[in-house]
Design brief:
By secondary structure, the chain is of the alpha+beta class. The chain has helices at about 5-15, 15-25, 35-40, 45-55, 75-90, 100-110, 120-130, 145-155, 160-165, 185-200, 215-225; strands spanning about 30-35, 60-65, 70-75, 110-115, 115-120, 135-140, 140-145, 170-175, 180-185, 200-205, 210. The longest helix has 14 residues, at about 185-200.
């Protein structure tokens, strides 16, 4: 007979700083190699493997072998959502190195929230989509307008296919660094994938940081009216 939820079991997995770093890194939504995760967490390969095994056994991540290499990702959207909620409750970590400072600024400028854009980039784009009349806020979520449907379809995003999925089409996701909402849901994911495909944004392995390319700055301005200035951090944040 099942009892109440065993939060302590999940808490034990999250209580180690190395495992927490691995989970935060895997919020990039893609497959990441064990060696890259070890480097990101600044631990040895054997120690990283031990932590990865615990996270896999705990159901928070999955592993995909490719030849002699093993790649990891979060096990589900639910895990990503849970981590994002915990981030909102967590204090900021102390930055003690130049590498950490650059990573922190990069995360604030633009990052992946599992499979959609967050940070200044995600919030600024969502604000512009709303201001341009492509999205409308409705009870905490977003609705796509007729003008928005045309704009997204011009980018090759099939809204009919997205609407047929069980996942919500568009959802407002609270951004922990901007304290505002960015676009999530299947549309947020599809838009992010399309921006990657077009080369308007770029990422790197073992990092959630996303940067807008020069081509992307022009493309985002022409497609949605998003100006370069909207992507810049305040002087205090930068």
């Amino acid at each position: 007979m099942a009892g109440d939820a065993d939060l302590a079991a999940v808490g034990a997995l999250l209580s180690d700083s190395t495992r927490a770093t691995i989970l935060l890194t895997l919020l990039n939504g893609g497959l990441t190699s064990a060696s890259a995760l070890a480097s990101r967490a600044e631990v040895s390969r054997p120690l990283a493997s031990a932590h990865l095994r615990k996270l896999t056994e705990g159901g928070l991540i999955t592993v995909e072998p490719h030849g002699r290499h093993r790649f990891y990702r979060l096990s589900s959207q639910r895990v990503a959502d849970a981590l994002e909620s915990l981030i909102l409750l967590s204090p900021a970590s102390v930055v003690t190195s130049l590498r950490g400072s650059k990573e922190s600024i990069g995360l604030q400028r633009g990052r992946l929230c599992y499979d959609h854009l967050a940070g200044r980039l995600g919030v600024a784009l969502t604000r512009q989509l709303t201001a341009a009349g492509f999205l409308e806020k409705n009870d905490g979520d977003y609705e796509v307008t007729l003008a928005g449907a045309r704009a997204f379809e011009q980018l090759g995003i099939d809204l009919a296919t997205l609407r047929a999925q069980e996942r919500p089409l568009s959802r407002a996701c609270l951004d922990w660094s901007e304290k505002d909402h960015h676009l999530a849901g299947s549309l947020g994911a599809a838009l992010t994938n399309e921006l990657f495909r077009l080369g308007w944004i770029e990422g790197r392995e073992a990092s959630r940081v996303v940067v807008v390319t020069e081509t992307g700055r022009d493309g985002l301005r022409d497609a949605f009216g998003l100006e370069k200035s909207a992507l810049e951090l305040t002087a205090a944040a930068a």
